Structure formats: C-alpha cells, structure tokens
Amino acid sequence: MTAYSFFHRVLMAAITLFGVAVIVFVLLRVVPGDPIAMMISPGASEADIAALRAQYGLDQSLPVQFWIWLTSVLSGDFGTSISLRRDVLELLAERLPATLELAAAALVFAVVLGIVIAVTATLLSRTKLSPLVDTLNGLFLAVPDFVWALALVLIFGVLLPVFPLSGRINPDSQEGFATQFYLLESLLTLRFRDLADISLHMIMPVLALGLPLASIITKVLKEALAEAMVQDYILLARLKGMSRLRLVLQEALRNAIGPTIALTGVQFTFLIGGTVIVERIFAYPGIGNMAIDAVINRDLPLIQGLVLVFGALFILVNLATDALVVAFNPRMEA
C-alpha cells in the first residue's frame, strides 16, 4: 500500500466518521422526548431543570451544541452519562475490551470453521456428501445470530445446563485483573482457572455470533476454491502427481483466500453490530449491552460516544481488510 493510498483512505475514514457524528447528533435531538425529564425528581423546580439543561449544554442552539460537543470530543472529553452519572470515556474504556474479545473470538472461530468446512466440501465435491454439506451450510446461513443465541440458551442453559447463562466471569475472580481484557490477561499471566471460567462464559455468545459468519465464509471460499480448481496451474500441478489435498491447501487456497478476506472484513463489521442483541441476551457486559440501556434511557452523551466507537471500529476493520487483501494479492492495489 503506497503512502498516497494510505493517506487517502485515512482521510476518507475521518470524513466518514465526521459525517456519522453529525447525523447521529442531529437525529438524537430531533426525536421526541426530553432526556432531562428522566433525571429530575417529581418536586424539582423550573430553576433546577434549567440548571440541569445548562449543565449538559441542552439550553444552546443546535449548531452551538454540536460545536461544544465536537471540540470536547477532540480534546478527549466525551461528556458525562445522563443515566449513569459517569464519564462516558471511562464507561467506554470499561466495556469496549469485553466486546472486542468477544468479537475477536467469534471471528477466529468463524474463520477456522469456515475454512475447514470449505476445504472439506471441496475435497468431497465429487462425492454424494457434497449436496448434504451445501444444504447444511445453507441452513446455518439462514439463521441469524440472535436466533442462535436463543436456541443455545434453551439447549445449553435450560435443557442441558452446562454453560453459564450470563455474565463474563465469576464475580469472585473479577477483582484480580489489572485490565479489562480478561481473556488476554488470563492467558498471558497463565491463570488457567480464570481462563477456563472466561471461556465457558464466552462459548455460547461466540457460537451465536460465529456460526452465521462461518456459513458465509464457507459459501464464498467454497465457490472461490471451485473456480481455482479448474485453472491451468492446478491442472499442471495435478499432472506432476500432486495429491488432491495438497492441491487444495497449497495451490488453490492461496489464490482463493483474497475474496474471502474482503468479505470476512465486511461481515466482521456486521458481527460487531450483532453483539448488541447477543450481549443483551447473555447479559454480557460489553458496549452492545450498554448501547441498549443508553437508548432506553435516552442518554445522549453515551449514545453519541457509543456511535463514534462503533463507527471507528467499522472504519478500522475496513482499513485492515484492505491492507490484508493487498498483502495477499498486490495486484488489487489501487
């Protein structure tokens, strides 16, 4: 990736994030409802209400409100949550690691499972099992993540209660962590008991988020492998006596992985968005779960901070995806 291309993408990312901030800021203030009304007590006076509105800058005009908020954000001040009465940046710093670990675990699971199934399906393409693989993958593809979450709760939380239904870790173990990246920290510090506990809490959310993505990866990669297997270089390798497994893994997979990476990056952004519902179902303490509470309470500063975080994550994932695609296939460089 050239310096010009990198600068252009970063510039477009900044413009996109600014546009998201403007749209969300305006929409949150034109919808019906007053967030201050949810904070005041029944006996509050007009002076108390006016003071509270002034504290959150809601007594200014819309352009002035946006300018005050934008300059504050650029200086690292995301405001104070109306419902939780805490600094928004602190809340995001507490909850974001949980969502990042959950999304990363779901992505790793989906990529590994998708590649394994796609390669297996390619190896079985001339057998009677091939239609069965396609049928099962189509079934998994049709089921959204929240349906998987509800099904997993019913099966492994109620009928066969083998996994924890909610939370991220046993509350007794939570105090011993120096960071909010519990999974990574427990792995690096060799705290295997905590690692096992965290993994058990993550299994059902990871399955719910990863299974639909794994189905998409399987479908795209299987089609790319099928196209690669009829190319001349594959025929030449076959004439040299190379086995079918080696043909798929060593020759075809290397050339078919590019489109899969691009699609996986796009789908990963949707996976991060999907954590909102899945985290709610499993009471997982991430930014997705917090986003629902913020919307219910019409917590404007917290919603704005959450939207900026989601927008920044989407942009960073897309930039990383573009870099990976170019790394695997330099001819894709614009």
TrEMBL record:
GO cellular component, one term: plasma membrane
InterPro entries (UniProt xref): BPD_transp_1_N, MetI-like, MetI-like_sf
Record's keyword terms, sorted: Cell membrane, Membrane, Transmembrane, Transmembrane helix, Transport
Source organism superkingdom: Bacteria
Domain ABC transmembrane type-1: 96-325
Predominant place of localization: membrane
Pfam family, one: BPD_transp_1_N
GO biological process, one term: transmembrane transport
Listed transmembrane segments: 6-31, 104-124, 136-163, 198-221, 256-282, 302-328
Similarity comment: Belongs to the binding-protein-dependent transport system permease family.
UniProt protein name: Peptide/nickel transport system permease protein
Organism phylogeny: Bacteria, Pseudomonadati, Pseudomonadota, Alphaproteobacteria, Hyphomicrobiales
